[in-house]
Amino acid sequence: MEGRATASTPAALPYYVAFSQLLGLTLVAMTGAWLGLYRGGIAWESHLQFNVHPLCMAIGLIFLQGDALLVYRVFRNEAKRTTKVLHGLLHVFALIIALVGLVAVFDYHRKKGYADLYSLHSWCGILVFVLYFVQWLVGFSFFLFPGVSFSLRSRYRASHIFFGATIFLLSVGTALLGLKEALLFKLGAKYSLFEPEGVLGNVLGLLLACFGGVVLYILTRPDWKRPPQAEEQALSMDFKTLTEGDSPGSQ
């Protein structure tokens, strides 16, 4: 809107965001290359159904979840409501894609007669998915659903941010566990002989760790937080004055 004051973007922030996207897209592309070169590709109605799982998790619970967390750093001057909706939609897409990955692996195990939920990776994976769904549901209820008081949102905001970052970290750790498990199951003792698939898998693991690290670095820089806009502060002040009779604290 014309005449509206805009917050300046920190000089280094765009470079870190661009680097995170380069890492994330390379991670997704390399996951696809690994599955295509060494695991036969992807198909739903065949023995390749299992391969849907790692690709969906890389896209959903790693790349899209990371991008959803960065929304409030990238879109610094857009309307808060618009930014909230984009943040929530990216999480919805991530959740749906992750659900497809879960269905793929359980359906594959059922068809092959394999046991479910016996490994540390599978336990962590279910924990992450449940926490992610609950986090989205509670976040939607507090921040997008009308009728929640300003004070309640303010009290919950810090917990929402903490659990969002924690779930993202758990997602990266769980993906690393799954990658190692997949390499050891297929390569066995040959893993220590620097087999090409093992080397590619190790590089993929480093990309996972680096993407997670860069996203968390961007999130934890206090000077890179999205500053509250003047109209947001005025609306918050008016709302809290009307409902509670005092002024809101800083967000």
TrEMBL record:
Major location (coarse): membrane
A Pfam family this chain is assigned to: Cytochrom_B561
Subcellular location: Cytoplasmic vesicle, Secretory vesicle, Chromaffin granule membrane
Keyword Transferase appears in the UniProt entry: no
Any one GO CC term of the record: chromaffin granule membrane
Transmembrane residue ranges: 12-37, 57-75, 87-106, 126-148, 160-179, 199-219
Coiled-coil parts of chain: none
Topology with respect to the bilayer: Multi-pass membrane protein
Superkingdom: Eukaryota
Cofactor requirements of the protein: heme b
InterPro entries: CYB561/CYBRD1-like, Cyt_b561/ferric_Rdtase_TM
Biological function: Transmembrane reductase that uses ascorbate as an electron donor in the cytoplasm and transfers electrons across membranes to reduce monodehydro-L-ascorbate radical in the lumen of secretory vesicles. It is therefore involved the regeneration and homeostasis within secretory vesicles of ascorbate which in turn provides reducing equivalents needed to support the activity of intravesicular enzymes.
Descriptive protein name: Transmembrane ascorbate-dependent reductase CYB561
Lineage of the species this protein comes from: Eukaryota, Metazoa, Chordata, Craniata, Vertebrata
Gene name of the record: CYB561
